[in-house]
Design brief:
The protein has 421 residues and is α+β, with helices and mostly antiparallel strands. Helix content is 64%, strand content 11%. The protein has eleven helices and eight strands. A four-stranded antiparallel beta sheet has the order 6-7-5-8. The chain has a two-stranded antiparallel sheet with strand order 1-4. Helix 1 runs antiparallel to helix 11 and helix 8 packs antiparallel against helix 9. The longest helix is centred in the middle third of the chain and has 59 residues.
Length: 421
C-alpha cells in the first residue's frame, strides 16, 4: 500500500457569528488551513527524483565504464607499454617420406589429407618441440632466456617474473613465440617477439638451430633403428648358419662319415657287385650239381664260396638299412635321414642368410636415401620498427568494448526503472 501524503491546502469558509440583540447574520469568516492528501504532487515528485538520479547515474556510469577505462588504456599503451619487435623465419623439413600402408599397395587410394599429414609429420614434431619445456630449458642454458624478458626496462604488465616456475615460463613463452605449419606445403612459420630487436633476432636464430639439431637427431635415430633391425636379422641368420654347420660337424664326428650319401652310393655299388657275383656263382653251382655229386670237391668249394658271398651280402646290406629300430642304429639309411635333415637346415640357413644380407643392404640404402634435413629459406632478420603494441587500435578496441558494456547496463537500468514506475 502506498503511504498517503498530506499537504497543507488553504480552504476558505464563512463563519456564522451571533449579533447582540439581533438576528443571526452571516459575516465573512476567517481563513482556516486544512491537511488533505495529493497523489498528483506525489507522482510529480517521484518522476522528478527519477529524472535527477537517472541522468546522474548515466553520466556517472559513462565516466566509470567508458571514459576511465579508455583513459587508463590510452595512458598505458602510449606511455607505459614497451615496444615489441618481431623476427620471423620460415623453414621446411625435407626428406623422402614413407608411403602409407594400404590394402592393395596403391597409394592413390589413400585420401590426400592423410597422405599430406604423413608427409608433414616431422614439421608438426618441430612445431611442438618449439613450444616445449626442453626448448625452453635449452635456451635458458644457452641464451639466458629469463633475463631477456625480465629486464627492468620492460613494463610491469609484460615483464616476466625472474623467479617464475617453468610452467609459467612456458605459458609466457608460448605467448611470445608462435610456430605454425602450413598443412599444404609443410612450411613452418616462426615468429619470435621480444622487447629489443637484437633479442628477437638472437632467439629466432637459436630456435632455428635447435630445430635443425632436432631434425638431424630424428634422422639419425630413424637410420639407426633401421640399421639396428637389419643388423639383428643378419646376426640371427649368421647364428642359424653357424648352428647348422656345428650340427653337421657333430654328426660327422659321431658317424665317422664325411658324406653319407657318397658312402651309401659306394655301399650300394658294392652290394650290386656282390649280388652279380652271387648270381654267377649260383649258376656255376647249379651247373656243377648237374654233372657232379654233392660230395665232390668242386661242388663243395662252390657251395662254400656261395655261402660266404651270401653272408657278405647280408652284412653289407645291414650297413645300408635295418629294421630293428634300436637307438644305436648306425645304418646308412638312418645316417642319410639325419644327414638330409641337417643338409636341408643348412641350405635354408644359407638361403635365409643370403636373403637377409640383401635386405640389409637394401635397408641401408633406403635409410641413407630417407635422410631428413631442415631447409631455412627465410632467414631471421633484424626488426627495424616495433610491431606491437598497436596503440591507437588497442585504445579504440577498449573504447568500443566500454561503450558496449555501458550501453547494455544502461538499457538494463532503464528497463528496471520502467518496471518499477
Amino acid at each position: 500500500m502506498s503511504e498517503t501524503v498530506e499537504t497543507e491546502r488553504p480552504v476558505q469558509a464563512d463563519v456564522i457569528a451571533p449579533q447582540p440583540g439581533g438576528p443571526v447574520a452571516r459575516a465573512p469568516g476567517r481563513r482556516v488551513t486544512a491537511l488533505a492528501p495529493s497523489f498528483e504532487v506525489q507522482d510529480r515528485a517521484k518522476q522528478s527524483r527519477f529524472r535527477l538520479f537517472g541522468s546522474f547515474g548515466l553520466l556517472l556510469g559513462f565516466i566509470l565504464l567508458v571514459l576511465l577505462p579508455t583513459a587508463v588504456s590510452g595512458y598505458y599503451f602510449f606511455f607505459v607499454a614497451s615496444d615489441v619487435f618481431v623476427s620471423e623465419a620460415r623453414f621446411a623439413v625435407r626428406g623422402t617420406t614413407e608411403k602409407l600402408p594400404t590394402s592393395s599397395g596403391n597409394v592413390s587410394m589413400v585420401p590426400s589429407t592423410i597422405t599430406a599429414l604423413n608427409s608433414n609429420q616431422d614439421a608438426y614434431v618441430v612445431q611442438n618441440y618449439i613450444g616445449s619445456l626442453p626448448m625452453i630449458e635449452r635456451l635458458e642454458k644457452d641464451e639466458n632466456l629469463r633475463s631477456l624478458f625480465a629486464r627492468n626496462t620492460v613494463d610491469p604488465i609484460s615483464r616476466l617474473s625472474g623467479d617464475a616456475p617453468l610452467e609459467k615460463v612456458r605459458h609466457y613463452w608460448n605467448r611470445m613465440v608462435t610456430a605454425s605449419v602450413d598443412s599444404l606445403s609443410g612450411v613452418v612459420i616462426l615468429e619470435v617477439r621480444a622487447f629489443a630487436p637484437q633479442d628477437a633476432l638472437a632467439l629466432a636464430r637459436a630456435i632455428v638451430t635447435a630445430s635443425e639439431e632436432l631434425v638431424n637427431e630424428l634422422s639419425r635415430r630413424k637410420r639407426a633403428d633401421a640399421l639396428k633391425f637389419a643388423n639383428e636379422e643378419v646376426s640371427r641368420a649368421e647364428t642359424r648358419v653357424k648352428d647348422s654347420v656345428a650340427a653337421m660337424q657333430a654328426f660327422r664326428n659321431e658317424t665317422g662319415l664325411l658324406d653319407p650319401v657318397k658312402s651309401a652310393e659306394a655301399v650300394s655299388k658294392l652290394v650290386a657287385s656282390l649280388r652279380s657275383d652271387q648270381i654267377e656263382l649260383s649258376n656255376e653251382l647249379q651247373t656243377a650239381r648237374r654233372t657232379l655229386s654233392e660230395t665232390s670237391p668242386s661242388v663243395q668249394v662252390l657251395s662254400t664260396r656261395l655261402e660266404a658271398l651270401n653272408s657278405q651280402i647280408r652284412t653289407v646290406s645291414r650297413e645300408l638299412t635295418t629294421t630293428d629300430g634300436k637307438p644305436g642304429d648306425r645304418s646308412a639309411s638312418r645316417a642319410l635321414s639325419v644327414y638330409e635333415g641337417l643338409m636341408l637346415e643348412r641350405e635354408f640357413a644359407e638361403k635365409f642368410y643370403t636373403t637377409v644380407l640383401t635386405l640389409a643392404e637394401t635397408a641401408r640404402a633406403e635409410a641413407d636415401r630417407q635422410q631428413l634435413y631442415l631447409v631455412t629459406f627465410v632467414e631471421p632478420a633484424l626488426a627495424q620498427m616495433a610491431t606491437f603494441p598497436r596503440r591507437g587500435a588497442s585504445v579504440l578496441v577498449v573504447f568500443a568494448c566500454s561503450i558496449a558494456i555501458w550501453s547494455i547496463l544502461s538499457l538494463l537500468v532503464a528497463a528496471v526503472r520502467d518496471h518499477d514506475a
